[in-house]
Amino acid sequence: MAENVTEVVAGGAVLAVALGFLVYAGQHTGFSPTDSGSYPLKASFRSVEGVKVGTDVRLAGVKVGTVTSLTLNPQTFYADATVSVQNGIELPDDSAIVISSEGLLGGNFVEIQPGGSTEMLPPGAEIEDTQGAVSLITLLMKFVSGSSEDKT
User: Fold this and answer.
1) Where are the alpha helices (DSSP H) in the chain?
2) Exposure of 57 by Cβ count < 10 A (0-12 exposed, 13-18 middle, 19+ buried)?
3) CA–CA separation, 141 vs 106, rounded Å?
4) Which of 11, 69, 90, 105 could form a disulfide with 120 if both were Cys (CB 3.0 to 4.6 A apart)?
5) 112 vs 2: CA distance, rounded Å
6) DSSP letter assigned to residue 133
7) Which residues pair with 109 in a beta bridge?
8) pLDDT at 133 over 60
9) Under a CB-based contact definition with an 8 Å cutoff, are residues 36 and 52 in contact?
10) For the sheet containing 38-45, what is the strand order?
11) Average per-residue pLDDT for the chain
């Protein structure tokens, strides 16, 4: 009888750890049940290097959302991204969205740069002004090789 109790307790502990892991993984991968506190926006980037689902979306350095999906557009060969932005944050329709780096060794994040228009982006709209990720390796290779497109 004591063996059965031990097995039940051990099984319960394993299930609790597994459930805790699933909750943790869901929170850190951007997967969550429908979040009514945000609305989607879309953008197409030449490169989304260093960005994945769950990456922070920031406005003035403050996290205001996350990247919810990344797909390759087979017609344009650009990466189509969908980001969720907190309700209550209205963005002008001439805003820009840029992939920025936290520093030399830091990760990337998506930054929204608000425009000056009086018209606001509705939920599901596409931000047209985008700037993709800049590869640090490519920049270093250009610097080391001394190559420049401005040479005559």
Assistant:
1) 2-28, 136-145
2) buried
3) 19
4) 90
5) 60
6) P
7) 100
8) yes
9) no
10) 38-45, 79-86, 62-72, 56-59, 108-113, 96-101, 129-131
11) 84
Q: Please report, as a single letter, which amino acid is at residue 2.
A: A
Amino acid 31: pLDDT: 56
Supply 50's token pair: 């260093």
Distance CA 13, CA 7 (A): 10
Joined together, the tokens standing for residue 93 give: 């329709």
Q: Tell me the average pLDDT across 52-59.
A: 93
Domain ranges of the chain: 1-33, 38-142
Give the whole-angstrom CA distance, residue 49 versus residue 51: 6
Model confidence at 72: pLDDT above 90: yes
Q: Check: CB of residue 60 under 8 Å from CB of residue 146.
A: no
Retrieve residue 60's tokens. 């003035």
DSSP strand pairing (62-72 vs 38-45): unpaired
What would the two tokens of residue 47 be?
A: 């490169």
**pLDDT at site 69:** 95
The candidate with the shortest Cα–Cα distance to 100, out of 90, 91, 110, is 110
- Decide: pTM greater than 0.85: no
